[in-house]
Amino acid sequence: MKTIVRMLHEAAQQFPARAYTTKKTDEGWKPYTYRDVDSASDQVAAYLIAQGFTAESSFGILAEGRPEWVMAEMGVIKARCISVPLSIKLTAEEIAFRLTHSEAKGIIASSNTLDNVCKALDAMEVKPMLLYLDEDDERLQRQKKAHGWKVGKDFLTWDTLLATGAEVLAGLPQIVKDTEAKIDENDTVNICYTSGTTGNPKGIMLTHLNYWANSHDAVELFHLPEETFETLVVLPVDHSFAHTVGIYTAMLKGITLHFVDARGSNAAIIRNFPKNLTEVNPLFMMTVPSISGSFMKKMLQGVSQKGKLIDGIFQAGLKAGIKRNGDGFNRPSLGVQVATFLPYKLAATLVFPALRKVFGSRILYCVGGGALLEARQQHFFAAIGVPVYQGYGLTEAAPIISSNSPEVHKFGTSGKVAPHVKCRIMKSETEESKVGERGEIVIQGENVMKGYFKNPDASAAVLRDEADGRWLWTGDLGYFDEDGFLVVTGRAKALLIAKDGEKYSPEEVEEVMVNNTEILNQLLVYNDHKAITTALVTLQDDLVKKMIKDENLTTPEAVLKRIIDLLRAYEPSAAKSIPSQWIPSRFSIIPKAFSEADGLVNSTMKLVRYKTIEFYQTRINEMYESEELNNKRNLEAVKELFFS
Questions:
Q1: Residue 363 shares a structural domain with residue 242
Q2: Within this chain, do residues 565 and 632 fall inside the same structural domain, yes or no?
Q3: Listed residues 491, 513, 531: the one ending a domain
Q4: Do 249 and 314 have their domain in common?
Q5: CB 262 within 8 A of CB 269
Q6: How far is CA 361 from CA 226, 269, 354, 367, in A?
Q7: Whether pLDDT at 45 is above 60
Q8: DSSP code string of 270-320
Q9: pTM of structure
Q10: What mean pLDDT is reported for the chain?
Q11: Mind listing the pLDDT tens digit for each residue in 440-473?
Q12: Rounded CA gap, 114 and 235, in Å?
């Protein structure tokens, strides 16, 4: 059977003394071998089985990345139960919904997340048992006293859980093995919740086979060697990217996962990350655009502070390196290589090595996931010698669909489709797109989810059975280029997506704006992996004209200022329900209303988002390029509308 449990057992046999996970302690980095994790997860499973938790009982896991997170989840899986990975960024209300919806019997939490978990438990009618990943510390004692908790009934600390499980195994040595023997590769392993962008979030059911297939594809995509590989895990392990590429794929090649020091609070992750990087000295890193972008910004600032000579060498070498690399797949001519040799060699000798030291002395490459990485970053890091290989995936696909790799890569694309994934670009429900022609990305493979938990309608909407099998319609748009690389261009159902991959529904923002801004006619709120959110707006001309008259506004500049003030007047109302990163900070005034004639609204007058974005891509780009340029365009629109 192709199961995660089998993967762990085989790793414990093949790499018994190799560190699987580590964490920072006062005494240094404490390793937990593959054999240690296999043994500890047996103890967790023995406890759960002995307590009567039956197959498919679910357990939420809400904690920072750490060895106990891995041991706890593997124990849950060995007991034929289901883990529900939860983000440390969730509110108490969001936690309560996910625990209730998944019918959680337990919540596995840490000292860092305990207070938020307790707020969630207070809001729940049926309260799951707390399995505490830490010792009986001050935070737990405070909550025990406040809630009147009883040990073994309401909560259990990590050491006690392991000790109790060990006692069970001593008396019933076959209890875990007998349960494991009943595991099927199509059993649900995880329920991973979407971000809830349109109403309540959906629970994605992923199986042993899903993860088995995707983990083996990851190894094949990157041709991982048998030698010891190590990485520092800074990404949240509840996210499917770190979950699969980190925790599960590691078992196949004996990779060591060092977790960033998060002792004290989750804020410590950001503080300790740079120091931990040099301590751990990893061979590769999993990253997202916001992290790599921060590195790039600091590198550029650091070099500029070294003076004109060093900065000049660096800038010339960077440009030369980018030219030499081409797009990564199609290399430039010999003439270009010769012409750029000296400036590149000088920078590669004097400047680039110092930049790479941020990652330690052994870094080979980074793997980008969670959000699309702009080509500028890809070119930059490849030039300095720490390439970031961009991939594309969805949690519904466990998550890898495609990726660039050291052997085959092309900047500006999401790489080659995984070996055992079939991918089509569909122009319509029945017509497949040609090379270079955009359509919806549709995939098939053993990595495709079982469906959405307790949501057959949503499952049926994206999982479609055809003559050649079941296909997942991703809702993402893209195309295959002439070299066979997948290029992801946007979302068919256009979500707002921040630089770090966080997602939000534009409709929720737009509803608040419309309800609080009378002069608005139409708007489209936009964020596609950017630092700020923006909006295209059309105006109620008659209301604005009345305002101009009533307030005696005599210049275009005065009118523009008043319009922008009114567009931002909704912000206090929005701040009560919408995170600040999704509230637009720049607006582009469009003189002509979005119309059906232009194909921007459908027959029911609903905005066709991706077409509107394409139609006004230049205006969107201008909002991000320069606030001054955007103001100039807005002033031109005001003059056209009200002063012509």
A1: no
A2: yes
A3: 491
A4: no
A5: yes
A6: 20, 21, 10, 17
A7: yes
A8: HHHHHHHHHHH--SEEEE-HHHHHHHHHHHHHHHHTT-HHHHHHHHHHHHH
A9: 0.81
A10: 92
A11: 999 999 999 999 999 999 999 999 998 888 999 9
A12: 20
Q: Which residues touch 151 (CB under 8 Å, ≥6 apart)? A: 160
Top pLDDT among 199 and 473 is at 473
Q: Is the peptide bond before 399 cis (omega within 30 degrees of 0)?
A: yes
Q: Identify whether residues 508 and 633 lie together within a single domain.
A: yes
- Asked if 615 and 635 sit in the same domain, the reply is yes
Opening angle at CA 245, ends 242 and 246, nearest 5: 60
Give the count of beta carbons closer than 10 Å to the beta carbon of residue 91.
11
The residue range of the domain holding 247 is 4-275
Pair (261, 179) in one structural domain? yes
DSSP 8-state secondary structure symbol assigned to residue 220: H
Query: In this structure, what token pair is assigned to residue 358?
Result: 């941020």
Task: List strands edge to edge, sheet with 520-526.
Answer: 520-526, 534-539, 586-589
Torsion-angle region of 51 (φ positive above 0: left; ψ -120 to 50: alpha; else: beta): alpha
Residues 6+ apart with CB under 8 A from 368: 287, 288, 289, 292, 388, 389, 390, 391
Hey, what are 581's tokens? 């990163």
Cα–Cα distance for residue pair 151/127, rounded to 1 Å: 15
Strand partners, 466: 469
In this structure, what CATH number is given to the domain that contains residue 571?
3.30.300.30
pLDDT digits (tens, 9 = 90+) for 302-356: 898 899 999 999 999 999 999 999 999 998 999 999 999 999 999 999 999 999 9
Token reading at 351: 């400047």
State yes or no: pLDDT of 216 exceeds 90. yes
- What's the pLDDT score for residue 196? 45
